[in-house]
Amino acid sequence: MTISDRARAIAEKVEAFVREQVIPYEGDPRRDHHGAPTDELVMEMREKARAAGVLTPHILEGGSHLNQRETAIVLIASGLSPLGPLACNTMAPDEGNMYLLGKVGSTGLKQRFLEPLVAGRTRSAFFMTEPAEDGGAGSDPSMMQTTCRMDGNHWVVNGRKCFITGAEGAGVGIVMAKAEEGACLFLVDLPDPAIRIEHVPNTIDSSMPGGHATVIIDNLRVPADQMLGEAGEGFKYAQIRLSPARLSHCMRWLGACIRANEIATDYANRRHAFGKPLVDHEGVGFMLAENLIDIKQAELMIDWCAGVLDTGSLGTAESSMAKVAVSEALMRVADRCVQVMGGTGVTDKTIVEQVFREVRAFRIYDGPTEVHKWSLAKKIKRDWKSAHG
Questions:
Q1: Domain boundary at 232, 249, 283, which?
Q2: Residue 370 structural domain
Q3: What is the pTM of this model?
Q4: Where is the Acyl-CoA oxidase/dehydrogenase middle domain (predicted)?
Q5: How far apart are the first and last CA of the chain?
């Protein structure tokens, strides 16, 4: 699929909004205990995004979506500031949750749970990962320990979840649990007294409101009509969400690294040492040149994977390749930006140090590099067996 003029105009509008109205908020002190923007700050920025016509820009009037290649240029633009996806409502986990609800949710569930998310009035959380000490699901969802069982016209859910992004303060939850039929997904209103936040750890990243909570689910009763899709199909639905969501992470953090490289480039041209600008020293100039190469390769990988998804393919292998290639490339870019800027690069004087932290976490979130490589290696073996009998 091609990128329409409409999508390019949306991306340009988003970029202008982020550069002109969001970036000035980067020094705003309204932050929670681990440095993430408060909901007050998020909602203030969203009102400005609504007024500028760039709130949830990838979902069009009537509920249709931009295709993945078009979404890419919009989400890259929103990522030019760590606050941009929050302001424009293109952030994780909401963007992926909206995508899943749009694909699988019934009309009633869309009206009740999806519409407030698209409107930017609330946040959501996806309850899948479980604590390692409980032997629960992490990169291997088949280890799911959270259970659900029918009781009359309700499902009763029990378990413990961890690293649940945005759980604190969210208004919508998607909970994964296992029944006799297999994995199931449920939509719930939050807060709910049966879902208790145990603690919210301080983490290396600080861009997502609500942190990454550990929660206890104690006899959560969910009406049967709040199951998302069919019983036993939860893993399939999770893949519908996760393949595009991995790519969306790539898009947003590419935008952030483009901006970090702009800042490092400006610094290297203005700062002098040993009688000339830093950029004229080969060691610095070569790092910036390598950044351009990695950024361009990341753009091409995102565009290729988005094109595969636009064909209607699930694109699991392709999204794994993109996640590995882009996250590793952007880690190199962020690291070089810090190095070019020296002492300034490790301070909060610019967003460069935050981008470094966020991209380091990105290499783990939505599956660490090694899990994706392992998955691809298994596919190589399957394909070989299929070809050779």
A1: 232
A2: 235-384
A3: 0.95
A4: 125-201
A5: 35
